Amino acid sequence: MKKIILNNNIPLVIKQNKNTPRCALCFYFKIEKPENRAGLYSVLNRLFLQGTKNRSAKQLADELDENAIDCYSEMKYDFIRFKLQCLNEDLEKGIEILSDIIKNSTFDDFNKEVIKLKGEIPAEMDDPKSKAMDGFYKNIFKNHLYGHTYTKILEDINYVTKDDVINAYNNILDDSSKVISFVGDFEEKTVEELLNNYFADIKNASAKKCEIESPILEKTEIVKIQKDDASQAQIIQGWHVPTIFDKDYPAIMVMNTMLGSSGLSSRLFLELRDKKGLAYVVRSSYETYNKAALFNVYIATEPKNIKTSLEGFKIELDKIKNIPVTEQELENAKNNLIGKRQFFTETNLQQSSLMAFYEDKGLGADFEEKLIEKIMNVKTEDIMRVANLCIKEPFVLTVLAPKEYLNFD
Amino acid sequence: MEQNIVKKEIEYPYLTRPVEIYERACGHKIVLAHKEGGLVNISSWVKTGSINENDENNGISHFLEHLMFKGTHKHKAGYFDKTLESKGAIVNAATWKDYTFYYVTLPQGPDGAYFKEAIELHADMMLDPVIPEDEIGPAFKLGDDNVSQKRERHVVIEEIRMRQDQPWTKIYNNTNKNMYTNHPYRRDVIGFPETIASISRETILNYYRTHYTPNNITTIIVGDFNHEKILEKVINEFDFKGRENFQNPKHELDLSTQEEKYYELNGKINTGFAITGWLGPVARDLKDNIGLEIINIIMGEGQSSRLYQNLIETVENPVFNVVTTDFYNFKDGGNFFIQANFKAEKKDEAISLIKKEFNNLLKDGITEQEFYKAKKKLKVRFAESAETVSDIAENIGYYMTVCDDLDLVEKYLEDLNSYALQDVNNVARKYLNFNNAVTTVLLPE
């Protein structure tokens, strides 16, 4: 892996993987300003594939598909990223289309895209899990960019204008810090030349103070969502916890693995699924953004099991807070976590994506190696400490179920 | 080394070495594929799924899949998961109409120690499951709140409940059921809560003994390893001890409906959902399958597809939120589906717009440009499916189990290259007439 600064000052992190027929490129644009209305960045992101000064939306879609080039953008609150994946022989074509999308999008289809989005949201809310998750994120990140979920977007979208989108685009294009990563069977020189050629006029802005504040959760909130025909209750309980920039990041990852993020041998899986038969899906997760991070537990269970499931969560969470984990369990969790990371970095696209993710955060594209070392250094006492640090009031508990089962507290 | 092993090699696109297939005298097949990198995938594919079920035991293949993880005579329940996951393994299994498969993906470990241990544990699980009564949990009557021990029966019932809440699953199941008259494919793989709550351990064990036979199992290993040594290891670990073979019964193929079928369901939802399905060619009919895969790409895959462009992208106020197609391959005949989500009050218009698109396809055929695009996409799919050890194993498992051999992989790109545009139009007319279609719509109450 190597880091090169392109002529436009954008860092390129690059890795050569021999004998791989497809290559991958990621282009990150940092989001450093909050959106004035929920949905602004989502609409901007959607409009990137809806036509440029040189290609209509149909021509873009046709050209990408005819060359079997995967090219799309994603909005992840802290950044908008473009991903490009194609056969090695089509790399230049792919970069040319990507540069056209990034530099020449017209946003002319603004009204159409808003109409499409407004149609898709109710369809998404017909899925009980999506509906419950929407209620959870909207409340745990209340009045914050990270809480701009589908239903929040539906409330605000009519107030977003095409000019807002163009302003946001110009701001991101001119004023954001950027990172490119590339993984594939190519010499550095070839990729560097291509990128210098196609992206010469996109400048990297130096890092500025991010205007997005950290979200604050002031008090515990219980959110009840009624869905009378639901066969299962959807239960999510979550806490604000330290982020990837914190020294406790590796220890929280290990705690999460032990509790329920990974496979069939975690505590929640064994106790709530295997022993109590409460669920098919039960898990914990730890997700980190730039300005906040969440630790949460989730279960989908027959509505009459809501109380038993909440008690089950409490027992397991109290255990990890109060009873020291054994050396053996700690070792198992660490090896589980480290071993699985190979699985999630197997393809060129996965590697490229992770390298850019770390580089964008200022941690360095090679952060993965350092992280593994830090995970190896987590001690048994760290687990109890971070459990007490993370799992405490306030929290948000969201339960979706038929009306007659929502009287659980 | 065991005697009487027949070896065959297959050129697999985008892999740097040929794939080796070994057939043992007992019928057990072992496939070894080379993929650079530190991860290995070990899987065993069993030729059983809902294809071997009836109304009394529907869901047994999937329930057995869950129970295979509940310990062997050598190792208690939980040992397999805990031991392998503590080495960074991904461990799981899946059941579908024609097959059930079990897999482990993990780093090889120091001197391949994890890899070897994983082969031992995987073989032990496949050949010697105990399926203990206390892990299954006592049989019970559905709705009885006084069940003392809620074990795996309840886990599977929760999985069924989860699917009951998914709008797409509801209409898929109804369409699937009504596309067939007699074939076992008409049943939902996961079965019914009533069956899972009451089926006995003995019935499950008998099902295991009948179907998990050497000739019905293919073990696939993908990664960077010494083939000779690993072959020997797999042979040693997979000691079937003279287990008798079982020949799967042949099922009479169902004919498509000769008259369009339409069903309407209701639920507490906001939007309308629809699935239209047709019966397709048997899995070994490579030519017709390629034709339907091409049509799938042209009609309903991605933003350049006809349905997306004509029904969403170029319409000022679209009726549809989602409209795509999908094509599944099955041993006794695949399925082609259209899936749509639309504004519920515009149901009639939605259905008629979809029909118009398919009638145009049958009348005017596809264009050269569409044909070129679809062929390129199918070629690239091989490159995609050769990127991870798990994807390679799944592709090999599909061909070995559903198509009975890997020979079609070698033939695929050759057949695709020689495909003519007119062949695609002929396939469309042969399979995708609305007189032969079954549609289910789900609307708000």
Give an overview in words.
- The complex is a heterodimer of chains A (409) and B (445).
- Chain A is α+β, with helices and mostly antiparallel strands.
- Chain A has 2 domains: 2-198, 2-Layer Sandwich (Cytochrome Bc1 Complex, Chain A, domain 1); 221-405, Cytochrome Bc1 Complex, Chain A, domain 1, CATH 3.30.830.10.
- Chain A is 44% helix and 19% strand.
- Chain B is globular.
- Chain B has 2 domains: 6-237, Cytochrome Bc1 Complex, Chain A, domain 1 (2-Layer Sandwich); 261-444, Cytochrome Bc1 Complex, Chain A, domain 1 (2-Layer Sandwich), CATH 3.30.830.10.
- In chain B, helix 3 runs parallel beside helix 9 and helix 10 crosses helix 13 (368-384).
- Chain B is of the alpha+beta class and 445 residues long.
- Chain B is 41% helix and 19% strand.
- Chain B has helices at residues 60-67, 79-85, 113-127, 133-136, 152-164, 167-179, 193-198, 201-211, 227-237, 286-300, 306-313, 347-364, 368-384, 389-402, 407-417, 421-431, and strands at 6-10, 19-23, 29-34, 39-46, 90-95, 100-107, 217-223, 261-267, 272-279, 320-328, 335-342, 438-444.
- The interface between A and B is large, with 66 and 77 residues.
Low-confidence stretches of chain B: none
Low-confidence stretches of chain A: none
Order of helices and strands of chain A: EEEHHEEHHHHHEHEEHHEEHHHHHE
User: Based on DSSP secondary structure assignment, what is the total number of beta strands of chain A?
Assistant: 11
Which labels suit this protein?
A: about 400 residues, alpha+beta, Cytochrome Bc1 Complex, Chain A, domain 1, 6-stranded mixed sheet, 5-stranded mixed sheet, about 20% strand, B: about 450 residues, 2 domains, globular
Summarize the structure.
With 409 residues, chain A is an alpha+beta fold. Chain A contains 15 helices and eleven strands.
Task: Give the helices and strands, then pairings.
The complex is a heterodimer of chains A (409) and B (445).
Chain A: E1 2-5, E2 11-16, E3 22-30, H1 40-47, H2 57-66, E4 70-75, E5 79-87, H3 91-104, H4 110-124, H5 128-140, H6 150-156, H7 162-175, E6 178-184, H8 188-198, E7 221-226, E8 233-241, H9 249-261, H10 267-275, E9 282-288, E10 293-301, H11 306-322, H12 327-343, H13 348-360, H14 367-376, H15 380-390, E11 396-401
Parallel strand pairs in A: 2-6, 7-11
Antiparallel strand pairs in A: 1-2, 3-5, 3-6, 4-5, 8-10, 8-11, 9-10
Chain B: E1 6-10, E2 19-23, E3 29-34, E4 39-46, H1 60-67, H2 79-85, E5 90-95, E6 100-107, H3 113-127, H4 133-136, H5 152-164, H6 167-179, H7 193-198, H8 201-211, E7 217-223, H9 227-237, E8 261-267, E9 272-279, H10 286-300, H11 306-313, E10 320-328, E11 335-342, H12 347-364, H13 368-384, H14 389-402, H15 407-417, H16 421-431, E12 438-444
Parallel strand pairs in B: 3-7, 8-12
Antiparallel strand pairs in B: 1-2, 2-3, 4-6, 4-7, 5-6, 9-11, 9-12, 10-11
